[in-house]
Amino acid sequence: MALCDLSLLIGFHLGYNILMNPILDSRFSESAQLRQVCWLDICGNIHSNMLTPGSAYAAYMVYKLADDSYGLDSPAQASVSIGGINRSTRKVSLQLHAGSGQQRSTRRNRRRAVEDAVLPCKRADGWVELELGEFFCEGGEDGDVSFGLAETQELGWKSGLIVQGIEIRRKKLG
C-alpha cells in the first residue's frame, strides 16, 4: 500500500512535520519522513473483496530510521480490524536492537516495557519490516481491513521515521 493510500496522523500540521521524498529501486514512488512530532498514528485500509477468501494474511509496515532519529524507542500499539471488529492488537517496537548512545540509555529505562514487544526484521533491500498483525479473510465479508500503528502515550518529540508503505501478504496456514 503506497503512502498516498495511508493516513499519517501526527501531533501538528502535516506539511510542517512530514517530508515527502522520492525512492529509487522501490515499487513505491515516494516515502514519508517524520521531521518532528509529539504523537504518531499511521493507518491504512484495503477492501476485503481484494483479498482471497479462506486465506490468512499479515500487514507489515516497511520503514527505515534515519541516522539522526530520536524519540522512537517507546513501544507502540499495532492493530488490525475487519469491518470495524478488532482482529489483532499487539505491542511493537520500531527499534531493531538496543541501539547506542542516547537511545540505549533511554531503552535501559524502558527495558521492561519493550520486553514483550514484537520486533522488526531487517530486509535484504535495506528496509525494515514490522508485522502489525495477522488476520484471516473468511470470505463473504464486506468491508475494510484496517491496520495501523500508534504511539500516543509518550509525548516527547519524535523524528526520523521514514515510511515506505504497508504490505499485505498471505501467510501459510499451519
- The low-confidence runs, each spanning 5 or more residues with pLDDT under 50, are 1-16, 98-107
Major sheet: arrangement of strands: 2-3-11-5-9-8
Strand share of the residues? over 45%
What's the CATH C level? Mainly Beta
Q: In whole angstroms, how far apart are the ends?
A: 26 Å
| Main pleated-sheet profile | 6 strands, antiparallel
User: How would you state the average pLDDT, rounded?
Assistant: 78
Radius of gyration: 16 Å
How many extended strands?
Answer: 11
Describe, in plain words, how this protein is organized in 3D.
It holds the Pfam family PP2. The protein is mainly beta and 174 residues long. The chain has a single domain (3-171), classed as Jelly Rolls. The chain is built from 3 helices and 11 strands, in the order βαββββββααββββ. It has helices at residues 14-17, 101-109, 111-114, and strands at residues 6-10, 18-22, 30-34, 40-47, 55-70, 76-82, 85-92, 121-122, 128-137, 144-151, 159-171. The strands form 2 sheets. Strands 2-3-11-5-9-8 form a 6-stranded antiparallel sheet. It has a 5-stranded antiparallel sheet with strand order 1-4-10-6-7, with no helix packed on it. A hairpin with a 2-residue loop joins strand 6 (76-82) and strand 7. The protein is globular and about 45 Å long. Residues 1-16 and 98-107 have low confidence and may be disordered.
